C-alpha cells in the first residue's frame, strides 16, 4: 500500500477521533508544530525514516521531544505511529490531515495568478466573490505572472477560472480562425 494512502487512512482516523471542533483545531495546531519541527530538522526526518532505529528508541525520542509541547492525544497518536512503524508517513499524514480539515471546516484553497500585484481591496473583493461562488470560505494564495498580460487566473482544485486578457485573446483568435475557414 502506498505511503500516501496509508497516511490518508491515519489522517482520516485522526479527524474522526476528534470529539468536537475545538479538539480538531487542537490537532491541527499540533500537526502544524510537528510539521515545522520536521521541516527545520533534517536529522529528525532521517531519524524517523531510518529502518535501523528501533521503535523503542523512536518512541523515547518522540516522548522527550514533544511531551508538553503537543496535546496528550497527539502525543499518544505519534507513539501509536511508532508502534505501527508508520512514523515515516508523517509528512504525508500532515498534508492529508490539512486537506481533510479544510473539507470538514468548509474551507477551499485557491491559487490566484495575476499580471500585477493586486491591491488589498482587489484581493478582498476577489476573495469575497470566490466565497460567494463556491459557498465555502476561500483562502487564496496570490502570485504574479506577467505572461498573463492583464486580469487573473484562479484555480480551486480542478476548476480554473481564466479571466486573463491572454485567454480572451486566444479565444478571439480561435473564433476568428474558425469563422474565416
Q: Could you name the key traits of this structure?
A:
about 180 residues; alpha+beta; Peroxidase, domain 1; four-stranded mixed sheet; 8 helices; 4 strands
What does this protein look like?
- The chain has 181 residues and is of the alpha+beta class.
- It has 2 domains: 3-103, Peroxidase, domain 1 (Orthogonal Bundle), CATH 1.10.520.20; 108-180, no CATH class.
- The chain contains 8 helices and 4 strands; from the N terminus they run ααααααβαβββα.
- It has helices at residues 3-17, 21-40, 42-49, 55-66, 72-83, 90-105, 120-134, 165-180; strands at 107-114, 137-144, 152-156, 159-162.
- α7 links the parallel β1 (107-114) and β2 (137-144).
- α1 crosses α6 (90-105) and α4 (55-66) packs antiparallel against α5 (72-83).
- The protein is elongated and about 75 Å long.
- It starts with a helix and ends with a helix.
Would you identify the regions where 5 or more consecutive residues have pLDDT less than 50? none
Main sheet properties: 4 strands, mixed
What is the string of SSEs from the N terminus onward? HHHHHHEHEEEH
In the sheet with the most strands, the strands line up as 2-1-3-4
Q: Strand fraction band?
A: 5-15%
Number of helices: 8
Number of E strands: 4
Can you give the helix content as a percent range? 55-70%
Global morphology: elongated
CATH A-level architecture of the largest domain: Orthogonal Bundle
Going by CATH, what is the homologous superfamily of the largest domain?
N-terminal domain of the delta subunit of the F1F0-ATP synthase
- Roughly how many Å apart are the termini? 53 Å
Q: What's the gyration radius in Å?
A: 22 Å
CATH class of the largest domain: Mainly Alpha
Mean of all residue-level pLDDT scores: 90
CATH topology of the largest domain: Peroxidase, domain 1
